[in-house]
Amino acid sequence: MVAINKKLKYFSIFSGSILSAMLIKRAYFSYKGRKSRPALTDQIYNWRFGKIRYRVKGHGEPLLLLHGVYPGADMTEWDKIDTTIYHSYRVYTLDLLGFGLSEKPDISYSSYLYTCLVNDFIEDVIKSPSIVAASDYSAAYTVMGYIFNPRYYKKMILISPAGISDGYQLPGIKDLLTKWLLRLPIISDIAYIILTRGQTASKLFKNLRGRKSISSHMPLEISPSAFVGGSNGKYPICELLTKYLNVKIKNKVNKIKIPLLILTRENADFKKVSSRVKDFLEL
Asked: Which pTM was predicted?
């Protein structure tokens, strides 16, 4: 009887700890994400894998702007774009699946998934060939989107594109095991909280940049949208850390037959990108 009571006591303590951790996690993400609210002009694209938040502004031929892939990434990456672009172009910005205020389902994220999203968005929402500007991983997915269906694209701007260097790696057995570990509930939540702690995350990802082409544009301040939907933003980041979002485009770039501008990491300072993009669009 004493042994049973001890087991019940330990079980109660364990259950209480788990429940407390869940409540603390929920309160943490609710607090961190409280400042992120959709704008009145935001629209929803009901994509086959989840709802995508997007915004349209301006008039003219379509220009699609795609943000990079890192903790806290969302369409605000393009907030510093030269506003005069809106006078000549109908500008579309969106939050990729798993980021910002778009839906963050518990699914397997991959380079192919995001390539399909780019092409589907152009076909279903924009509905005409478009100019596409994208940074790091999204730049790679844009290249693959062109390879799959070039008729969707008129011009292309790639900002520090991932997958273009010789040292770019694809996932192996070690990455598969790491992915399994990072997918464990408690471990994945803790890892995501660490990765969304501003300077800590930025330093980590800059150290990984040379080896895995992690975004060089990651800001010191994480967007509040990273915390909307609880810790579900961890799912694409898990795939990012284990190379499942990687795609090699070095041999694909030469197949692009439309006007193309590539800004490397050295000249891809976002303070200067706006004017470079504007100059290219006016050619």
From this structure: 0.80
